[in-house]
UniProtKB/TrEMBL annotation:
Family note: Belongs to the TRAFAC class myosin-kinesin ATPase superfamily. Kinesin family.
Protein name: Kinesin motor domain-containing protein
Compartment(s) where it occurs, according to its Swiss-Prot or TrEMBL record: Cytoplasm, Cytoskeleton
Binding site for ATP: 90-97
Coiled-coil intervals, chain numbering: 283-317
Native source species: Didymosphaeria variabile
Length: 436
């Protein structure tokens, strides 16, 4: 994995008056290591990371510089059909949201990485022959504990489930429609055909992002936010909708088939005098009933498979290689360090629920680190199931080339955040220094 680090500027507050003493060293393999110590005093021993970082950005480097060095080199690969991902990792308040999403949506130098990427994609697609009909399908959801919230669909609650095909699906509740039809909404993907509409939809959706109290500040994003940009055309969008309709048809039929089977199984046994279950000789299993519903289920499954194949065919027969390519940006929830100095005062303001949430975030991040390490080393067993966060990311890791994943660790230079900064650097250097 490519690992970058970014120091944010000191905040103009009393608490951030003192700065961490830090030094950057490049080694012969062009990867960089960093040494930090709490104070400039000679008595304080520095901690030095392994050579694990591509670049360490200074507080003066703006989002534009980061985009040019970190994300822009991946755009030609996306245009060739490859998937890429970018994760922002760091303790609460270190600058993840500023980096990935940004807080200023007007000034181009301050745009978050995802918006800048969308801008470059649109500029390139508009200037290339045969690409004018392409757009970006935007999905945006946040993950809080084990539940997703679709920010492009009024924060509809979604659930992360592994399907019988072994794939992980994120879907809302089953909705009852007019005429008794049901629908199971997947995460919404909004097609955007120009940058302005992409920006508008993103900014509106971000208004729904949840904030809460972290051990550092009160306006912390206590969720992992996933932004996916997929290159789409109208025909791909239409076929996806057809697939969702067919999946919705399958849900009640599949449930009915299970119910019928269970009912018939239950009727065909009775409890004997000794309490044990024995065959009910007075009941003959209604095999015709079972076969009828199983045949209906098989028909629905075949319709789902046909729609899936149609999507595959559209992507395979693409006249432009980038159709279906994805860029994923993840603004991870901030790691929490309760015992670290500097965090105690704010941490004591947190509710029990917020502290439990903080522990859940830490365990998600630990699981992610293990997945990244196992995946980078091409290990046979990758522990995707160890958390909901890694389950959600499974499909993405499986479809992304090794060189196409990037982690950006964001760091506070304030001495009072020393312990948290040290932890973030240790985390990132463990991922970055993996021998493949
Ligand atoms: N590189 C930077 N340049 C200027 N300001 C920054 C930078 N990084 C962060 N900030 C500012 O610091 C504050 C905290 O940043 P941000 O909200 O991005 O942190 P975070 O890591 O996402 O926190 P949390 O995990 O708690 O949501 C914001 O006011 C942000 O504008």
């Amino acid at each position: 994995m490519n690992v970058f680090a970014r120091w944010r500027p000191l905040a103009a507050t009393k608490a951030e008056a003192e700065e961490i003493d830090r030094r950057t060293d490049s080694d012969s393999r062009s990867l960089t290591s960093v040494s930090i110590k709490r104070k400039a005093s000679a008595a304080d021993r520095p901690w030095t990371s392994p050579a694990a970082f591509h670049t360490i950005f200074d507080p003066d480097d703006d989002n534009d510089k980061l985009y040019t060095d970190v994300v822009a080199p991946s755009v030609p690969r996306v245009l060739q059909g490859e998937n890429c991902s970018f994760f922002a990792y760091g303790h609460s308040g270190s600058g993840k949201t500023h980096t990935v999403i940004g807080y200023d949506f007007q000034e181009s130098k301050n745009l978050g990485l995802c918006l800048r990427a969308a801008k470059q994609l649109f500029d390139t697609l508009n200037s290339q022959k045969g690409c004018q009909e392409l757009g970006i399908g935007l999905s945006l959801f946040e993950l809080r504990r084990k539940t997703g919230f679709d920010l492009l669909n009024n924060r509809t609650q979604c659930y992360v489930r592994e399907g019988p095909d072994g794939k992980v699906h994120i879907r809302g509740d089953t909705e009852l429609m007019e005429g008794g039809k049901v629908r199971v909404r997947p995460i919404v993907q909004q097609p955007c055909w120009n940058f302005e509409s992409f920006q508008q939809k993103l900014v509106k959706a971000l208004e729904q992002r949840a904030t809460g109290s972290s051990s550092v500040h009160d306006q912390s994003s206590r969720t992992h936010a996933f932004l996916q940009l997929e290159i789409v055309n109208q025909s791909l969008m239409d076929t996806r909708h057809a697939l969702f309709d067919r999946q919705s048809e399958l849900v009640p039929v599949g449930k009915l088939a299970t119910d019928v089977m269970m009912e018939e199984d239950l009727k065909s046994v009775i409890r004997g005098l000794d309490g044990a279950w024995v065959l009910n000789r007075d009941y003959q299993k209604d095999q015709t009933r079972i076969d009828t519903i199983e045949a209906e289920k098989a028909r629905c499954e075949a319709r789902v498979s046909a729609a899936e194949e149609e999507i595959e065919a559209i992507i395979k027969s693409r006249s432009t290689p980038c159709l279906g390519a994805k860029m994923v940006f993840v603004d991870l929830a901030g790691a929490e360090y309760y015992e670290a100095d500097g965090f105690r005062s704010q941490a004591s303001k947190q509710t029990l629920q917020e502290r439990q949430e903080g522990r859940q975030i830490n365990s998600d991040l630990l699981a992610l680190k293990e997945v990244m390490r196992a995946w980078s080393q091409s290990r046979k067993r990758i522990p995707f199931r160890s958390s909901t966060l890694t389950m959600v990311l499974r499909e993405h890791f499986m479809s992304t080339g090794k060189g196409n994943s990037t982690i950006i660790v964001t760091l506070s230079p304030a001495a009072e955040h020393f312990a948290a900064t040290l932890n973030s650097l240790k985390y990132a250097s463990l991922v970055g220094a993996v021998k493949t």
